[in-house]
Specification:
Blueprint lengths: L9 E2 H22 L2 H9 L4 E4 L2 E4 L3 H48 L22 H5 L4 H16 L4 H12 L5 H18 L9 H24 L4 E2 L9
Helix pairs in contact: 1-3, 1-8, 2-3, 3-5, 3-7, 3-8, 7-8
Length: 243
């Protein structure tokens, strides 16, 4: 039988950078877009043209410059509002990708654990179902296991947050704080309103910062779960293995 060795790590370092970088960039954008002096300086680089009896001419009326600055400020406020909503959407993308990567690492370190998450109907008792084409088209046992782990992880990371963490607990014996589950579910619910219901809800800077703090808590929680379950992980930022 072919020998194989797969060691997929749950990369805490990668996700830690994202939880720090995104809200930092967002904060800088808000500071710049709400700075009257910066807006005025930007407006100074533009020319306002007026239509005269001799054709187009540069308008030097200071009132028009003020109108332009106000227009730019309103436009930047609208852009910031849109970005505030989209950064919540991005947060949920990170939640989904982070948990899926965790499950992939878990399943590759212990392939039999993926059994009940294989198949398209994992909630109906039809576990362990695999398409024959996945087997016949696989280049090697290693690549087959990677494909199976990816499929199983997709199923394991679906559903309500509480359901996902019950699966984490089953794999690792690590229990997640229920308050974190509630915070994450609220973020997901807000994202669904933005994406599926096209709601232009107000998202404050405090809400964005709280969302990414919850992401950092999720990352740390999954890190402790990986450590408890002997799942390979990479922790260059010493989020789990603190000195």
């Amino acid at each position: 039988m072919e020998a194989f060795n797969i060691n997929k790590e749950f990369d805490l370092g990668k996700w830690l950078f994202k939880t720090i970088d995104v809200p930092g960039v967002y904060k800088e954008m808000l500071l710049l877009s709400s700075n009257p002096k910066a807006i005025e300086e930007h407006a100074n680089g533009r020319e306002i043209q007026d239509i005269t009896e001799h054709g187009l001419a540069v308008c030097k009326d200071p009132k028009m410059k003020k109108i332009l600055c106000q227009h730019l400020q309103n436009s930047l406020k609208t852009a910031a509002d849109v970005y505030s909503r989209q950064i919540i959407v991005l947060a949920v993308t990170y939640i989904e990708a982070m948990t899926k990567e965790f499950f992939i690492a878990a399943f590759l370190s212990n392939p039999p654990a993926m059994y009940e998450y294989l198949g398209s109907e994992i909630e109906t008792g039809k576990q362990g179902w695999v398409q024959l084409s996945m087997v016949t088209e696989a280049d090697s046992i290693s690549s087959l296991l990677q494909d199976l782990a990816n499929s199983a992880a997709s199923n394991a990371s679906k559903g309500k947050v509480t359901s996902i963490f019950k699966r984490v607990t089953k794999l690792t014996k690590h229990k997640t704080n229920q308050n974190l589950c509630i915070e994450l579910q609220n973020i997901i619910d807000k994202r669904n309103m933005i994406v599926h219901e096209a709601m232009e809800i107000d998202v404050t800077q405090e809400e964005v910062e709280a969302a990414y703090e919850a992401l950092a808590d999720l990352l740390q929680d999954l890190g402790y779960a990986a450590k408890n379950g002997n799942i390979p992980y990479n922790d260059p930022g010493q989020l789990i293995d603190k000195r």
